Amino acid sequence: MNGFDHVTPGVLLLLALALWMLYREFSRISRGYQHSIRRIPGVDAIEGAVGRCAEQGRAVSFTTALTDVGPTLIACIGVLQAVAKKIAQYKLKLFVPQYSPEAMAVVEDSVRAAYNEVGRAAQFDPNSIVFLSSEQFAFASGYMGLLHREKPGAAFLFGAFAAESLVLAEAGQQVGARQVAASVSPEQVAFFICTCDYTLIGEELFGASAYLGRDPVQVATVAAQDRFKLVLCVIVVFGVACATIASVWPEMHWSPIELLAAGWEVFAR
Question: What does the pLDDT read at residue 269?
């Protein structure tokens, strides 16, 4: 029970609600329900960058940077597969610089599956999945060298980034690549906004992946997250209203919202 020592009943209630919403969306999709996903401008930027490479006959670079195996990598792969399918159809060259050996294996299988899906399995080149280094700035140096040698027409920077983000984006600027970035690292978003043609901020990465890949698991997860965030917004507004009422009428010291923060001692009374 050590992991639940500081968990309040309210938190457990919210967790149960979140799990129920996720289960509900999975059940709806399994019955054939089609969610409507709003097309965000980031999707147009991704497709426009690939189209530009097709017009110029230039290669495409897609890196997941410091992203390890996890939910963020799965979201990146959803976009990567959509990009790889178009590259296979246009017969362009693809480079996928990698930092994590574990992520590299997943990425290679995903790109291979994308080529197979459009009937271009023979065009897939395993050497296009390039392992550079598992050291942060060694990876950044290798990425810069790769871009200057191959001079791609588009560079996609998706995933987790740290201090090397500006170095990677500047390399794309130097070779004239159209760059689209998507980061779950809030502190790096400003650098991408300054140096890239378009930047997907935060959860837009997951939305773009669900829209392009149409993977049932990702679509259900995004739908459940949106509904749960709406519930949290309602709770916040209700809590602010209760706090405001309590400040105007101090005699009303109790608020229903306090139940979410109350400990297990409430049930021991």
Answer: 53
Number of domains, the chain? 2
pLDDT tens-digit readout, 144-154? 999 999 899 99
Using CA atoms, how far apart are residues 60 and 213, in angstroms rounded to an integer? 19
DSSP of 41-80: HHHHHHHHHHHHHHHHT--EEEEEET--SSHHHHHHHHHH
Average pLDDT in the 119-133 region?
Answer: 88
Q: Residue 115: which CATH number?
A: 3.40.50
One domain for residues 119 and 13: no
For residue 97, the model assigns a pLDDT of 92
One domain for residues 61 and 180: yes
How far apart, in Å, are the Cα atoms of 248 and each of 241, 244, 256, 261? 11, 6, 16, 22
For residue 131, tell me if it sits in a domain.
yes
Cα distance between residue 39 and residue 42, in whole Å: 8
> Does 134 share its domain with 209?
yes
pLDDT over 70 for what percent of the chain? 90
Q: In terms of residue numbers, what domain contains 242?
A: 8-35+219-268
**Integer Cα distance of 218 and 206 in angstroms:** 8
Q: Is residue 247 part of a domain?
A: yes
Residues 31 and 152 in one domain: no
In terms of average pLDDT, the best of 41-45, 76-80, 255-259 is 76-80
192's tokens: 């991408």
Considering the domain architecture, whether residues 162 and 256 belong to the same structural domain is answered as: no
Q: Judge whether 91 and 58 are in contact, CB under 8 Å.
A: no
d(CA 8, CA 16): 13
Domain co-membership, 193 together with 233: no
Q: What is the mean pLDDT of the chain?
A: 83
What pLDDT is recorded for position 62? 93
Helix and strand totals (H; E) in the chain: 9, 6
